[in-house]
Amino acid sequence: MTVTIYDVAREAGVSMATVSRVVNNNTNVKPLTRKKVYEAIEMLGYRPNAVARGLASKKTTTVGVVIPDISNTFFSEVARGIEDIANMYHYNIILCNADKRKEKEIRVINTLLEKQVDGLLFMGGTVTDEHRDAFRTTNVPIVLCATSEATNTYASVDINHEKAAYDAVTLLLNHGHRQIGFICGSLEDTNNGLARYNGYKKALESAGLEMREELVRIGNLRYDSGIDATKYFLGLEPRPTAIFTATDEMAIGAIHAIQDFGLRVPHDISVVGIDNIRMASMVRPQLTTVAQPMYDLGAVAMRLLTKLINKETVEDTRVILSHEVITRNSLSHVYK
Q1: Could you give the CA distance from residue 89 to residue 290 in angstroms, rounded to a whole number?
Q2: Are 73 and 249 in contact (CB under 8 A)?
Q3: What CATH number is given to the structural domain containing 176?
Q4: What value does the mean pLDDT take over residues 182-189?
Q5: Looking at residue 31, which CATH number applies to its domain?
Q6: Contacts for 267 with CB less than 8 Å, ≥ 6 apart
């Protein structure tokens, strides 16, 4: 039979209110009484009912996290940062994978809110009017992690994606490259797509170069689309001397496509990505990339959410973290 708080109180010889205070770490309990209650809990195998406690306190100490693609190394690393800070502040997380589908994102947002989570972290993806409609149905705090939205209505933690792309292309320009192919995310994706496209375009304009549409391909941010887009670039005449991709995963695909074609990276074509996933330093040649602080994105977003949940003072609800250009072996000066 299920052990109840009444059973613990009877075994310890105290009131149910005293057991409740002990379970909820209330300091207003004598040490000897606290010891008796813990001994009764251990002997009976009592496990507090989190749902009942949540109803009483109006808090579940649970945070919902919407992740667009759990198989993506980038989001896995961000989730590690979220989990570590959640544990530090005694929150549990419910992690929901949305498969990068808007309708599923809306569904899991509503499901998490129905479970009475204390706060919501929305990771990645474009925030649309449908998302805002779902967010407006709740009073719990919402923090956007590794993404942002046009109206700046919600707290967010992200990098400057346009500047990250600008810095990557500028690095290539400084190495003498003028024919730079770009594998972009969908332009409906405000970060991996539109913002990084704008950064690529502005870097070229700053160098006095006109952006050529035939040097831009839209990918899906994954390895295979990096291969496919690179095969297209290799068929151009003249072909690009460098390829910049909106994600490291596509960049690794680009490296392999170039090698399969019988060319060398970076002697024949340089490759630069964004993210600095673990594979960036494992691939050969090692990938030059713009590093996002993946773990910190998750950790800072979770800490911001705890502050909002507990109504702590927050000076700025829109946090931009720094990125870093990491030069490795996939980049060289133009030899031609």
Answers
A1: 31
A2: yes
A3: 3.40.50.2300
A4: 91
A5: 1.10.260.40
A6: 332, 335
Tell whether the model's pLDDT for residue 206 goes beyond 80.
yes
Identity at 74, one-letter amino acid code: F
Which pairs from 237-241 meet CB under 8 Å and 24+ separation?
A: 238/179, 239/179, 239/269, 240/179, 240/180, 240/181, 240/215, 240/269, 241/177, 241/178, 241/179, 241/180, 241/269, 241/270, 241/334, 241/336
**How high is the pLDDT of residue 3?**
81
Contact 149, 155 (CB under 8 A): no
Q: Are residues 27 and 38 in the same domain?
A: yes
Residue 20: inside a domain = yes
246-261 pLDDT tens trace: 999 999 999 999 999 9
Other Cβ atoms within 10 Å of 247 Cβ, number: 28
**Tokens standing for residue 193:** 């797509």
Torsion of CA 308, 311, 313, 318, to 10 degrees: 20
Quote the CA–CA distance of 116 and 63 in Å, as a whole number. Answer: 9
152 vs 234: which has the higher pLDDT: 234
| High-pLDDT (> 70) share of the chain, % | 96
The answer to the question of residue 330 being in a domain is: no
Instruction: Based on the fold, state whether residues 123 and 188 are members of the same structural domain.
Output: no
Give the percent of the chain with pLDDT over 90.
Answer: 65
- Asked, for residue 333, whether it belongs to a domain, the answer is no
46-82: pLDDT as tens digits = 877 655 555 455 567 899 999 988 888 888 899 999 9
For the chain, what is the domain count?
Answer: 3
Question: Where in the sequence is the domain holding 238, given as residue range(s)?
Answer: 161-292
- Residue 28: is its pLDDT beyond 60? yes
Give helix then strand counts, H and E, for the chain.
12, 12
CA distance 145 to 222: 20
Q: Where do the H-state alpha helices sit in 215-283?
A: 223-234, 248-260
Please state the rounded mean pLDDT for residues 130-138: 89
Residue 112's SS3 state is helix
